[in-house]
Amino acid sequence: ALLGKLAKMLSSASPQTAVHFEMASFVDEKFVLPHADSLGMNEQELPNLLSLFRGSNLTVLSDPNPRVATVLDQMRELYRLVNQRHQEAGTGRPLTRLHVHTLAFQAIIVKRGSKWKNTMSATAKASLTANRHVCGSPDIDLSKARLIMDESFSISRQEGSQRIPLQESRPVSCWDEDGYEICVAPVLVCTEVYQTAGGGDNISAAGLVLQI
């Protein structure tokens, strides 16, 4: 009943008002994606939602530390399927932004020419916020942080895909693809955990604040 009220409120909002929906774990196959321009989720929620759009059983268990290429391929497919469903239904909003936050890295897809700005800066801020939130500190202590992302990553699991090295002087990597921009940033993983609850909300909000 509450989700029904939420859907009604979102559908009545002005198209000029950008709407972000932050995912959470779910096991109900009757889940209905709300009217949203932007989606945020973690590495477990991404394959779960993707399996729902594929029409298959929900993915209850998933890789807790997926490779960048795997996540990017899943993001591309989810982005395509959500917008395909939007076109077929003729209602709701097209998806123009997708943010996936994992323990090791942040990845954001933004439609070119959309209202979302500063994608590189947003990805960097989300990454830094992940460390600050988990460590419970406004400052980043490098003695309590480590990189677990590989020194380079492929942009897709397809054979022959481009491989991007991690550059210390420019750690956020961005590139253009078919109609959208993708940015990936490594996370300085906190090694002395202070808190984890609310991590996704804080990380996604940090990315959003620079894009609106």
TrEMBL record:
Keyword Magnesium among record annotations: yes
Classification via PROSITE patterns:
ADPK (PS51255)
Transmembrane ranges, per UniProt, are none
Q: Name one GO biological process term.
A: glycolytic process
Which InterPro entries would you find in this protein's record? Answer: ADP_PFK/GK, Ribokinase-like
Q: Which domain of life is it from?
A: Eukaryota
This chain's protein is named: ADP-dependent glucokinase
Q: Which UniProt keywords apply?
A: Cytoplasm, Glycolysis, Kinase, Magnesium, Metal-binding, Transferase
Molecular function GO terms recorded = kinase activity; metal ion binding
